[in-house]
């Protein structure tokens, strides 16, 4: 019997980066109308999807030309809200689907996050996931009082200690500590609530939490590090890994690196799945799917593309010379502690580090990456399912896919549920009903 995939839907930029006004996106509603998110949740649960997910960032892009004006004007990673209350709203109209939130371990405090996630796990009846990021953007860092980005490896060291604190806090109160005795009035057993007293390199925490033990014990932890140090962190702390939308050969390489790191940590690679971000355009006919995908070419203005690229890589691309080598630019970006795996890295991998390009060629390629045009899989349900099966098997048949970013949110979630899911179910590759009580239980199905 073939292994089943796990499927999630990425809501991170459904209202940004040129997507909000495409046909089939928001219609007569505008962000942050919670009724759209509630509708998405109902549809996704009807399709038995594992999780609705949202990335996040707190800064307004200001890398391009040292100004945020074009980001605000064209809606590039702007505006945003904290998705915590939105996820709660979606949980109130569903019963099974998981909900994934993103927070930065570089800026947040573990006591606050442990308490928040325990509370959300109660509110969702065991359906919450915590996606942890280290943050690579200066505008985010400045909002939390940082004059410059924390060094790359140090960010991951902080993340690992952050999770260690959370684990101690979640484990401090035993699962059967709560009594709620109506006759005596006793609330809990003091012998089952333990001290924490954590003191490490980055955090000093007394504890314990003052929340009841959560339904999942602890939330599902998702992490998306793609650098060698990020993969090492994933092996140490993650229940599930969020994999980037990149060529399959690189995904196979990352899965192999993750497996090796998991074994080194004494963990079974079979227990840690990867959800590969996979933009799709699925329609009843291949011609309709290709036409739908073509909308991406004009979804962002040239200024919007420039803002997107500069923000994503943490580098002001308005300063580029007329001609330059990709490898040299990649090294310059990495030296600033910005992301080593952004656009320039992707182009250097695709075209070669010694390749010299012009500014015009760079932005032409950048448009395809910023809109995800190159990586969007367009086709009929059977064609897209073929692609997913091939990728699933090539990367070890553990985990599945995160569909995103959506071209047009309502049209895309409907197409996934009404066209793609039935095809995957017919092939025995996806569930026909939820069997687990919690998100952790549903994600553990194979």
Automatic annotation (TrEMBL):
InterPro entries: Diverse_substr_monoxygenases, Luciferase-like_dom, Luciferase-like_sf, NTA_MOA. GO terms for molecular function: monooxygenase activity. Keywords: Flavoprotein, FMN, Monooxygenase, Oxidoreductase. Its EC number is 1.14.-.-. It is an enzyme of class 1 (oxidoreductase). Residues 38-396 form the Luciferase-like domain. Pfam families: Bac_luciferase. Belongs to the NtaA/SnaA/DszA monooxygenase family. This is NtaA/DmoA family FMN-dependent monooxygenase.
């Amino acid at each position: 019997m073939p292994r089943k995939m796990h499927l999630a839907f990425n809501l991170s930029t459904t209202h940004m980066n040129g997507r909000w006004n495409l046909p089939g996106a928001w219609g007569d509603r505008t962000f942050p109308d919670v009724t759209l998110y509630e509708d998405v949740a109902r549809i996704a649960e009807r399709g038995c999807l594992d999780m609705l997910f949202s990335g996040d960032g707190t800064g307004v892009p200001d890398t391009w030309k040292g100004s945020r004006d074009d980001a605000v004007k064209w809606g590039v990673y702007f505006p945003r809200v904290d998705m915590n209350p939105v996820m709660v709203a979606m949980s109130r109209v569903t019963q099974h689907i998981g909900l994934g939130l993103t927070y930065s371990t570089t800026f947040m405090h573990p006591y606050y996050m442990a308490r928040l996630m325990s509370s959300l796990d109660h509110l969702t009846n065991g359906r919450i996931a915590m996606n942890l990021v280290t943050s690579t953007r200066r505008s985010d860092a400045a909002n939390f009082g940082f004059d410059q980005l924390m060094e790359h490896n140090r960010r991951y060291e902080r993340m690992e200690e952050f999770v260690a604190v959370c684990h101690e806090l979640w484990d401090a109160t035993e699962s059967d500590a709560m009594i709620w005795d109506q006759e005596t009035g006793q609330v809990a057993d003091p012998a089952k609530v333990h001290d924490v007293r954590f003191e490490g390199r980055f955090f000093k925490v007394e504890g314990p939490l003052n929340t009841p033990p959560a339904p999942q014990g602890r939330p599902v932890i998702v992490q998306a590090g793609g650098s060698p140090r990020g993969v090492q962190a994933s092996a140490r702390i993650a229940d599930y890994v969020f994999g980037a939308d990149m060529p399959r050969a690189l995904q196979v390489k990352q899965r192999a690196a993750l497996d090796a790191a998991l074994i080194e940590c004494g963990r079974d690679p079979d227990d840690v799945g990867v959800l590969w971000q996979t933009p799709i355009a699925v329609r009843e006919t291949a011609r309709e799917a290709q036409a739908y995908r073509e909308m991406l070419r004009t979804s962002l203005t040239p200024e919007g593309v420039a803002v997107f690229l500069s923000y994503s890589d943490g580098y002001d691309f308005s300063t580029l010379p007329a001609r330059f080598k990709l490898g040299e630019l990649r090294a310059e970006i990495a030296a600033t502690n910005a992301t080593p795996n952004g656009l320039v890295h992707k182009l250097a991998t695709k075209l070669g580090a010694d390749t010299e390009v012009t500014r015009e060629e760079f932005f032409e390629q950048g448009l395809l990456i910023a809109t995800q045009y190159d990586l969007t899989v367009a086709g009929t349900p059977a064609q897209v399912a073929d692609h997913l099966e091939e990728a699933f098997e090539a990367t070890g048949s553990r985990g599945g896919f995160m569909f995103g970013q959506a071209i047009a949110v309502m049209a895309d979630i409907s197409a996934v549920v009404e066209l793609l899911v039935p095809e995957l179910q017919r092939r025995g590759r996806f569930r026909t009903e939820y069997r687990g009580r919690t998100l952790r239980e549903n994600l553990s199905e194979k």
